[in-house]
Amino acid sequence: MPTIRDRAALAVLTDPTFVVPPVPPGTSGIAWLRASVGRFSTGPSHDRRRALSVEIISRIPPASLRRAGDEHPVATLARAMGITEPVTDLVRQIAQAYRPGTAAKDRQPGIRVAGAEPAADGDAVVGVEPAAGVDAVVGVEPAAGVDAVVGGDAVVGGEPPVGGDEARADEVLADATVERLIEVLAGAHDERTAARIGVLVQACDPTAALIDRLRDRSPATVFREDPPVPATKRRATAATVLPGGLAVEAGEEVVVALDGELAFGAGPRRCPGRAHALALAGIALTEPADHS
Predict the structure, then answer these.
(1) Considering only CA atoms, which of 159, 166, 223, 165 is closest in space to residue 25?
(2) Cα distance between residue 12 and residue 223, in whole Å
(3) What is the reported pTM?
(4) Which of 83, 103, 140, 214 could form a disulfide with 97 if both were Cys (CB 3.0 to 4.6 A apart)?
(5) Separation between Cα atoms, residue 53 and residue 274, nearest integer Å
(6) What is the rounded distance in angstroms from the CA atom of residue 98 to the CA atom of residue 127?
(7) What pLDDT does 169 receive?
(8) How far, in Å, CA of 98 to CA of 173, rounded?
(9) For 3, phi and psi rounded to 5 degrees?
(10) In whole angstroms, what is the distance from residue 6 CA to residue 240 CA?
(11) Burial group, residue 123, by CB count within 10 angstroms (0-12, 13-18, 19+)
(12) In b/e form, how buried is each residue of 212-251, taking b as 16+ CB within 10 angstroms?
């Protein structure tokens, strides 16, 4: 699968013939969440769901997102969203399995923020708790109010995950955690509740990673050399030739690098929460927020 960069990456992100790879439908758990947020949808469904997310974040002035010490960014954002119960652990566990095919292997080590347990090397690992009630190979612990998951043979509301025991257990645990978070939010299995959860998940590991990387590097260096979300995927619906001459066939998937000026994406799927992410990371915004 080719990795697209620079001008070609911008072309892919702004070309409507390149779409996000679809996810299977789901009626509950992590499969329901993926199938109900703008992140994994296209066309009118994406537009409608994105509008719900934009509505949520547009009510929050970025300047109000000042973290208290090493408070996890999810805790800060949840408070600004009017959520009074603690949800950070729930969101972190959902985030581990949010993107299809990335459970377990996408955990980000070395992110030192409040609410993370120390790893063996002394750094805290966001979203990874010591195993308890889960097979030792799994390495995650259910958040409060979520039953322990052992083995991970069943997945609620969707297809069984791939990627081994860790990925399977991450998804099963995420299924239970999604249902618990819906209860905490007094929500339902609808797009508005999915949008609220999606906003929290999108602000989880990437923002925590950004905060950690800014400890010893400038924002420009981080976004250029070590962006918190390094890439995204797109699928071509028609054959095309990108700037630089790379030919992409219809149905082919490409990896699009999100670095430098493209760190928050581009085009109709550009991250609408850029100003809020920067505020959570303690970076002053020098240009107007983009909610397009």
Answers:
(1) 159
(2) 19
(3) 0.78
(4) 103
(5) 13
(6) 12
(7) 77
(8) 12
(9) -100, 125
(10) 17
(11) middle
(12) bbbeeeebeebbeeebbbeebbbbbeeebebeeeeebeee
Residue 76: CB atoms within 10 A of its CB come to 21
Residue type, 180: R
Sign of CA dihedral 213, 216, 218, 221: negative
Residue 154 reports pLDDT greater than 70: no
Per residue in 229-240, pLDDT tens?
999 999 999 999
- Residue 142 and residue 198: Cα distance in Å, rounded? 19
Residue 127: both structure tokens together? 């979203």
Q: How many residues does the chain have?
A: 292
Q: CA-CA distance, 125 to 204, in Å (whole number)?
A: 12
Tokens of 196: 């609220």
Structure-token pair, residue 171: 């998804």
For residue 260, what is the DSSP state? G
How far is it, in rounded angstroms, from Cα 116 to Cα 203? 16
Longest dimension (CA), the chain: 53
Q: 106-110: long-range contacts at Cβ-Cβ below 8 A with a sequence spacing of 24 or more?
A: 106/205, 108/205, 108/208, 108/209, 110/212
